[in-house]
């Protein structure tokens, strides 16, 4: 029971409000379902292997893309134009041109975005 003091200094006893108690019960229901699991060294090893395998796969895919890009013919004058006008390294200019199959306009648009 809560004890309240009114303006006249008299004390009154009122039953405690139960509106705050319902939240506690709900919280206990939620936390009942959570179980703590021990992390074993095997599960850490499996996770590290999965990450390593994913990185190797991504590296292999990048190499394949790079090989395909080197096959694209680009014009030296286009590369010079991009390097001089955009003031970027030659390798970036060549790579951008190759990605856009040698199309100068598309490469310039991509570099300005």
From TrEMBL:
Residue ranges the record marks as coiled coil: 50-77
Any single GO BP term: negative regulation of apoptotic process
Top-rank taxon: Eukaryota
Region span, Disordered: 1-27
Keywords from the named record: Coiled coil
UniProt-listed InterPro entries: Huntingtin-int_K, HYPK_UBA, NAC-like_UBA
Protein name: Nascent polypeptide-associated complex subunit alpha-like UBA domain-containing protein
Lineage: Eukaryota, Metazoa, Spiralia, Lophotrochozoa, Mollusca
Any Pfam family the entry gives: UBA_HYPK
Span of domain Nascent polypeptide-associated complex subunit alpha-like UBA: 72-112
